[in-house]
Amino acid sequence: MVKISVLGAINWDINLFVERFPKIGEEVPVENITRVPGGKGGNVAVAIARLLGSGEVALIGCLGKDPIAERQIRILRKEGVDVSGIKFSDKVESGQAYILIDREGRNFINTFFGANLHLLPEDLKKPRIRDLLMEATIITLIDPIVETLKAAASLARMHGKTVIWDAGVRSKIGAEKLRPILENIDYLVVNEVEVKNLTGETNPFEAWQTLHEINQNIKLIVKLGERGCAMVGPKMVASVPPVNLKKIGLKVVNTVGCGDAFLGAFAASKAEGLDDVESLERANLAGALKATKPETRGSPNRKEMERYLRYMARARIIRET
After folding, report:
1. CA atoms within 13 A of residue 167's CA, in its CB half-sphere
2. Per the structure, how many domains does the chain have?
3. Angle at alpha carbon of residue 93, lines to 36 and 61, rounded to 5°
4. Is 26 among the domain residues?
5. Cα 174 to chain center, whole Å?
6. Which one of 6, 74, 232, 308 has the fewest beta carbons within 10 angstroms of its own beta carbon?
7. Order of all β-strands in the sheet with 95-101
8. CATH number at residue 70
């Protein structure tokens, strides 16, 4: 039985490494190209599998019936992800992302969602997908279409599951329109741009106050990039500083996928019974370690995490009631 079921995108990533980003109308040479598996759903599922082990996480998503799908399934299985909940569509090709990365590891991403938009609410009623949702103690939602997110969050809440949602691209819709989803989740994970899109606020505590009006028990996690992360909930406000990579002898290579490593480590830590603070600290470490790898799915495995745990940045509890 799986511990975590992940609903999210499965993309094939084309990474273009450049010295710097071009200005509008300017041509900048590409120094290197990599073509690798990606998509937030796939990345998070793999990040979890690397920490919990084979067969502990299922990925629920949609691929086209094409060569990309064949490669994706083969790679996911090798990573130990249960792929029995993946749907295949002959109406559209598999999702793809085109990512521009500069020398400092910063990025721009353009995504063709393709088959990812074809995971529908009625698919959640299919026997195998429903079984995977019922088996899991944690449901991690990412970027299916809004109608599917609503159905999944409602179903998970009805059956007493812990629900984690990385709002990502859906944050642009705004909190009020996403109320049916926000009402049924336990943890909301966003970055600085997304929390502003969602709530109109940049301060995590003020953003949480807006969300609290929708869901009194919601816990907001804001990924702050090179400044660490923060969590705001009804009983606690905590801040985790950045990991000192220089002290470890590592440096930032590519920040694409750091948020996915973060989310995967947080979900895996909660599945193992760790409290919110330690789960947040481990997620922060996983995101930092991913930044030192060139590949999108550069999330650390269990052995790597244990090796660097002593360098993990500790949380500062700002308020606790």
Report:
1. 31
2. 1
3. 75
4. no
5. 19
6. 74
7. 32-38, 11-17, 95-101, 107-112
8. 3.40.1190.20
